[in-house]
Design a protein that fits this description.
- The protein has 318 residues and is an alpha/beta fold.
- It folds into two domains: 7-207, Spore Coat Polysaccharide Biosynthesis Protein SpsA, Chain A (Alpha-Beta Complex), CATH 3.90.550.10; 212-302, no CATH class.
- The protein is built from twelve helices and nine strands.
- It has helices at residues 17-28, 47-54, 71-81, 100-107, 146-150, 163-168, 180-190, 212-232, 241-262, 265-278, 282-293, 298-313; strands at residues 7-13, 36-41, 61-64, 86-89, 95-96, 112-122, 139-142, 160-162, 194-207.
- Strands 1, 2, 3, 4, 5, 6, 7, 8 and 9 form a nine-stranded mixed sheet that branches.
- Helix 2 links the parallel strand 2 (36-41) and strand 3 (61-64).
- The relative contact order is 0.11.
Length: 318
């Protein structure tokens, strides 16, 4: 890919009128100019405020959904509207590092997608100046699903790919109300795409602590659904019952840990039910159930809270 290609940046927007201008500003400050910014309003109750922000950015392509469709469908609307042959994304409450598009575009190839690292920001404004990098850092190559079966290390909103590739794999699955990016990574790999993971933190994610318990319940539910769909698409015994049981055990332990962190009894109960439903090995299912019932992951939640408190007090130390 080279400078002759047109890059379209898609910004889904729902309740983000207060941060939309910041997101667009980070897009216009790129060292490699973005050719087209597309803002898709997902029938937001803040439509008036969103449109007031966009009055100061007349070059932005604006689309408003007739009904609230959710993130996956809203991103798909942006893909269909975009005129660029290269697509990138930005959530309306986040920011891009000024060199994100330049560095990702230099790695993009036919049949490939590019992700990048993320820097988590707690608070309404970042307190640091974006570093200017002299060269591209480490790049990992993902060609199989093995890294994704036990955790999703890729930042969904950091994706850059050709529009043609996204259309070939069917874009985002609109039946998913969360974890649509996790599912897309799987389907890209299933279609033979290579994913380059640029480890540099070029995507700035603003952490919102509100609704933590509800979000964890939703995320945990949809992670299970994405993995079930991925296993169902496997061919020729690609995913044995043994492998699936180990995968389900690993995710169940993660979900138990989340439940302890949030003090979420509903998530804990659902995870206990999933263990019995999904893990085919009775002994393994019994062991994971015992760990969950005994609150084995409670010390992990204490460590997480200590780590989080230190990170909040000294944001540049961790």
């Amino acid at each position: 890919m080279n400078a002759a290609h047109r890059v379209s940046l898609i910004i889904p927007c729902y309740r983000d009128s207060a941060t939309l201008a910041r997101a667009i500003a980070s897009a216009t400050a790129q060292t490699r100019q973005i050719d087209e910014v597309v803002v898709v309003n997902d029938c937001s109750p803040e439509t008036l405020q969103i449109e007031q922000v966009l009055h100061t950015y007349p070059g932005v392509v604006y689309v408003k959904n007739a009904a609230n469709l959710g993130l996956a469908a809203t991103r798909n609307v942006g893909i269909r509207v975009a005129t660029g042959d290269v697509i990138a994304f930005l959530d309306a409450d986040d920011e891009l590092h000024p060199q994100k598009i330049e560095f990702q575009l230099s790695l993009l190839r036919d049949g490939a997608a590019v992700a990048c690292g993320v820097r988590i920001i707690r608070g309404r404004q970042r307190t640091f100046t974006c570093p200017q990098y002299l060269r591209i850092g480490a790049v990992r190559t993902v060609t199989s699903d093995k890294r994704l079966l036990f955790r999703n290390p890729l930042t969904g909103a950091s994706l850059m790919a050709s529009r043609d590739l996204l259309l070939r794999v069917g874009c985002y699955d609109e039946s998913l109300r969360s974890c649509e990016d996790f599912d897309l990574w799987f389907r890209l790999i299933e279609h033979g795409a290579v994913i380059f993971e640029l480890t540099m933190p070029l995507y700035f994610y603003y952490f919102n602590p509100l609704g933590l318990s509800k979000n964890l319940q939703s995320i945990s539910h949809w992670e299970i659904e994405v993995l079930k769909q991925h296993f169902s698409r496997g061919r020729n015994g690609q995913y044995s019952r043994s492998l699936q049981s180990i995968v389900w055990a690993a995710w169940s332990c993660k979900h138990f840990a989340r439940a302890e962190i949030a003090g979420d009894k509903v998530l804990r109960k659902r995870t206990l039910e999933n263990v019995q439903r999904l893990i085919a090995w009775p002994l393994l299912a019994g062991l994971v159930t015992l760990l969950g019932r005994m609150h084995f992951f409670l010390p992990y939640s204490w460590l997480w809270r200590i780590f989080d408190a230190v990170r909040r007090k000294f944001p540049g130390a961790l």
